[in-house]
């Protein structure tokens, strides 16, 4: 199975949201990292066939997605960032409703709804009203609806935003479980969401693809660029203006800074093993959420 993005660009007026993107996906989980506005949602909406690229094409197993039309859309499960769930519906009723919209017969719908409810761990809550569910449970209902047509390509946009750490771990494990035999694309700006489950990480910046690598290779690339140094409170802002500074931890009278720098930033700075948070900081220089 092979999903190819061939020279795709997308413009909104004179704003370039995606700039000549080339990508290839096979079975497994891909994490899409990028700051706000980097083009993650635009890329996902193009792959989900919600919007068309301004130029370039998407191919599935060598066939043009536009020409495949509904055959392509049948391959897709899509969980947008903001999904409208019918609050007064029970989980079961909502999923049956979506199954009908997706063209499943009554018998097929019942069977499939049971299956996806079990998969996302909501079988015991099938009669619960969606509006009363926790954030994590709502997100699992969202995944369940995206799985109803047993999609080959599952696209989930910022699925863990607003979830507490326990729910995020549960969601991560769920994604891992359902990634067998599927291409799963998951966008986030929460680095730890994809650290352990992504086979490759794509880094988008200002609509351009700046990296696509395994997490291990990406980390290896910044091996000698992560440092910690102890500085006084007065020195912190100086370091922040000169370097990309991650964690700042109080250590008795001093502060320990985690610094990303090509060269040793302080005489006593110590080299550290990089993590994905460092990577994010290195590439995106932006807000870091772990
Ligand atoms: N329908 C639209 N009309 C005009 N501009 C748009 C539209 N959709 C996206 N953009 C712009 O394109 C750029 C990329 O947006 P996109 O939503 O793809 O980014 P993102 O990486 O998903 O960001 P976020 O994390 O905030 O969702 C942004 O500058 C955005 O303002």
TrEMBL record:
Query: Taxonomically, which superkingdom?
Result: Bacteria
- Establish whether keyword ATP-binding is in the entry: yes
Sequence similarity:
Belongs to the ABC transporter superfamily.
Residues of the ABC transporter domain: 3-231
Q: Which organism is it from?
A: Litchfieldia luteola
State the name under which the record lists this protein.
ABC transporter ATP-binding protein
Q: Name one Pfam family in it.
A: ABC_tran
- Give an example GO molecular function: ATP binding
Entry keywords, A to Z: ATP-binding, Nucleotide-binding, Transport
Task: List the Gene3D superfamilies.
Answer: P-loop containing nucleotide triphosphate hydrolases
């Amino acid at each position: 199975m092979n999903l190819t993005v061939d020279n795709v660009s997308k413009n909104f007026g004179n704003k370039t949201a995606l700039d000549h993107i080339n990508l290839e996906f096979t079975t497994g989980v891909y994490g899409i990292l990028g700051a706000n506005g980097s083009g993650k949602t635009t890329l996902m909406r193009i792959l989900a066939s919600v919007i068309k690229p301004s130029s370039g094409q998407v191919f599935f197993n060598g066939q043009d997605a536009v020409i495949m039309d509904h055959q392509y859309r049948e391959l897709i499960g899509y969980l947008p960032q903001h999904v409208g769930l019918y609050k007064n519906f029970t989980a079961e009723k909502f999923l049956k409703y979506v199954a009908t919209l997706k063209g499943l017969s009554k018998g097929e719908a019942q069977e499939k709804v049971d299956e996806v409810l079990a998969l996302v761990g909501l079988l015991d809550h099938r009669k619960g009203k969606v509006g009363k569910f926790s954030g994590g449970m709502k997100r699992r209902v969202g995944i369940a609806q995206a799985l109803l047509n047993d999609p080959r390509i599952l696209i989930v946009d910022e699925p863990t935003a607003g979830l507490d750490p326990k729910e995020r771990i549960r969601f991560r494990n769920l994604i891992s479980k359902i990634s067998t035999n599927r291409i799963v694309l998951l966008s986030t700006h929460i680095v730890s969401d994809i650290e352990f489950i992504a086979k490759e990480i794509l880094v988008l910046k200002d609509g351009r693809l700046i990296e696509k690598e395994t997490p291990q290779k990406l980390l290896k690339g910044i091996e000698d660029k992560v440092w910690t140094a102890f500085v006084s409170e007065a020195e912190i802002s100086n370091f922040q203006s000169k370097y990309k500074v991650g964690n700042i931890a109080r250590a008795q009278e001093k502060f320990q800074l985690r610094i990303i720098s090509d060269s040793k930033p302080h005489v006593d700075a110590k080299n550290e093993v990089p993590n994905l948070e460092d990577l994010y900081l290195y590439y995106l220089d932006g807000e870091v959420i772990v």
